[in-house]
Amino acid sequence: MTKNLLVVLFFAIFHFANSQVKIGSNPNKIDAASIVELESTDKAFVLTRLTTVQMQAITPLNGAVIYNTDTQCVHYYDGTSWINLCDGNTSSSFSFTDNGDGTITLSDGNGNNITFNGAPQIITTFTDNGDGTFTYTDEDGTVTTFDVKRSTVVDNNDGTFTITDDSGTAITVDTNNTVTTLVDNNNGSFTYTSEDGTVTTFTETLSTLADNGDGTFTYTDEDGTVTTFDVKRSTVVDNNDGTFTITDDSGTAITVDTNNTVTTLVDNNNGSFTYTSEDGTVTTFTETLSTLADNGDGTFTYTDEDGTVTTFDVKRSTV
């Protein structure tokens, strides 16, 4: 498809480079002497529109014509400089003349004329034949038909596909390839079948870790190597007599006695207290408390630590 399009583009570029150009009405009718021909009853021929700066920046072929948007006049190039066709021509006699022989004469009204000449040429044609082919007729009448059919892919519904390229060459592709399989035999082995039917059985031995119930574990690796290791932890045992036995994870044991004599303080309920220290020393001391008694008649009796008694009246005045 790409090569066919390149051929079309090549022919189009080649022939347009040598073609006549008819623009406007009756595009298939052009004078044999014309290289460019304009025909219209409702459209104008518009020259290239440039500013003065843009115009002076180019050096075209002798006879080039532009419309200057700054001077609002047509200028033509005489080979060395741009000539303003409005200078000295207030009668606005600038004109284009179709000479009827395929040429156009540009006149500035001051006797300065430029004639554009053409050459005989037949128009090319390009026809879609409606069947995936096109017919191209060049200016010389040479006819070329070419195929632009596209490649196709057809599903044969049996796992195969037929691929036809744009030149009509067809190939069939079979997608019914055998898939590989891997089966667990449930005995520690697996069976692998490749695409070509080759069968391979292999065994996968797993490692194990067993708790022996005595603080040790037995580890067996994939090769059958057995390793037993001890994970006993340290322990603390209460002997229920004020002592504790502590055994570390290496088996070393020590006994800690917590039966130390503690100090005591006994209230003798007579205002005295008995204190016994860690070494068995006994000390008795008396703590006399002050008292305040409500006599029920608006008076109170206060007795201090030394036994001194004081009675005072807290009756209030009434109205």
What would you say this structure looks like, in words?
This protein is mainly beta and 319 residues long. The protein has 2 helices and 30 strands. It has helices spanning 2-17, 52-56, and strands at residues 21-24, 36-39, 49-50, 65-68, 73-77, 82-84, 95-98, 104-107, 113-116, 125-128, 133-137, 143-147, 152-155, 160-164, 170-174, 181-184, 189-193, 199-203, 208-211, 216-220, 226-230, 235-238, 243-247, 253-257, 264-267, 272-276, 282-286, 291-294, 299-303, 309-313. It has a 4-stranded mixed sheet. Residues 5-17 have low confidence and may be disordered.
What is the C-alpha radius of gyration, as a whole number of Å?
Answer: 62 Å
The helix tally amounts to 2
Distance linking N and C termini: 129 Å
Q: What is the molecular shape?
A: elongated
What is the strand tally?
30
Strand pairing plus helix content: what structural class?
mainly beta
Q: How much beta, percentage-wise?
A: 35-45%
Specify the biggest β-sheet. 4 strands, mixed
**Can you tell me the residue ranges where pLDDT is under 50 for at least 5 consecutive residues?**
5-17
